[in-house]
From TrEMBL:
InterPro entries, A to Z: Isoprenoid_synthase_dom_sf, Polyprenyl_synt, Polyprenyl_synt_CS
Family, per entry: Belongs to the FPP/GGPP synthase family.
Name by which UniProt lists this protein: Polyprenyl synthetase family protein
UniProt keyword list: Magnesium, Metal-binding, Transferase
Organism per entry: Oxalobacter aliiformigenes
Cofactor(s), by name: Mg(2+)
Record PROSITE patterns: POLYPRENYL_SYNTHASE_1, POLYPRENYL_SYNTHASE_2
Keyword ATP-binding: no
Length: 329
């Protein structure tokens, strides 16, 4: 299994939980089993495609930072990865994506219908796994998160080719579609550790802020990143008609010509304007602004950890918050 992309010095936060991560991978392999061959093939393909595994890492680190000594956090981390992978399968169908992590997306390889249905399989398998944990509060957190993620995806769909969306609307979307699962991952790590309510609240604030930082950087990298490093084409959001923060900034602060180009690109799907918009986003301060917002979210995440005792796991969580804004993939 291609476990962790670029697992080097910039991912030093993984070191204290490597044995847990290996256990999570074993659970994922076991739980992917299905008597229906196509289910196993597609699930295996998308999960083995690699990725940062940040959400399960967050479960493991938070549980350990709060003193957990058992193994249930490993099952819950695998559950989170299944939920996340299901959303990726569905997202790629909705977005008509051709690449995921540098290789053909599952929908491009196996077709839309198969991808949607295997995404459903992963969702339901995730719920079987979380029920087996026997903790109603954890089940409640994950059920709420899964429901809000679905609402966030619908909200994003409703805003496709809508140049009137503002920052408030944008942040509402990225909280629901991305940050909520980060928040849930952090919270269930605290819950499985039997943490105090003040610690659970801190875990929620950390995960929420970290998720916002991650999505902000993703949206910045869509314009600034390198395809060979990111494993996807730059400018995808623009071509798909998504008004992310760099474009929202440009619509508010750009000159008349730049605003007209954004409207043509988004509202009319006018490909002749794409290069001009990409240049404007990179030259008008939109990426720097987006990065500053991500840095503030990362600082908020780090601040939330002030209630935790010092130790290697808290150190890794702080390193993770730094990684969220320093990464290039």
């Amino acid at each position: 299994m291609n476990d962790y992309k670029n697992n080097g010095p910039d991912n030093a936060f993984l070191t204290p939980i490597l044995p847990d991560l290996e256990a999570v991978n074993r659970i994922i392999r076991q739980q992917m089993h299905s008597d229906v061959a196509l289910v196993g093939r597609i699930a295996d393909y998308i999960i083995n495609a690699g990725g940062k595994r940040i959400r399960p890492v967050l479960v493991l680190l938070m549980a350990k930072a709060l003193g957990y000594q058992g193994t249930l956090h490993q099952i819950l981390a695998a559950t989170i990865e299944f939920i996340h992978t299901a959303t990726l399968l569905h997202d790629d169908v909705v977005d008509e994506s051709e690449l995921r992590r540098g290789i053909p997306s599952a929908n491009a390889l196996f077709g839309n219908a198969s991808s949607v249905l295997v995404g459903d399989f992963l969702y339901t398998r995730a719920f079987q796994m979380m029920v087996s944990a026997g903790n109603m509060r954890i089940l409640d957190v994950l059920a709420d998160a899964t429901n809000l993620i679905a609402e966030g995806e619908v909200l994003q769909l409703m805003n496709i080719r809508n140049t009137d969306i503002d920052e408030e609307g944008y942040f509402k979307v990225i909280y629901a579609k991305t940050a909520k699962l980060f928040e849930a991952s952090s919270v269930i790590g605290a819950l499985v550790a039997g943490a105090a309510e003040s610690e659970i609240d801190a875990a929620a604030r950390f995960g929420r802020a970290l998720g916002m930082a991650f999505q902000l950087v993703d949206d910045m990298l869509d314009y600034a990143g390198d395809k060979g490093v990111m494993g996807k084409n730059a400018g995808n959001d623009l071509k798909e008609g998504k008004m992310t923060l760099p474009l929202i900034y440009l619509m508010k602060n750009g000159n008349t010509e730049q605003k007209i180009s954004v409207r043509k690109s988004i509202e009319d799907n006018d490909g002749s304007c794409f290069e001009g918009v990409l240049h404007a986003v990179r030259s008008a301060g939109a990426l720097a602004y987006t990065h500053r917002k991500a840095q503030q979210a990362a600082r908020d995440a780090a601040q939330a950890l002030s209630v935790l005792n010092s130790g290697q796991y808290k150190k890794s969580l702080l390193e993770l918050s730094s990684f969220s804004v320093e990464r290039n993939y």
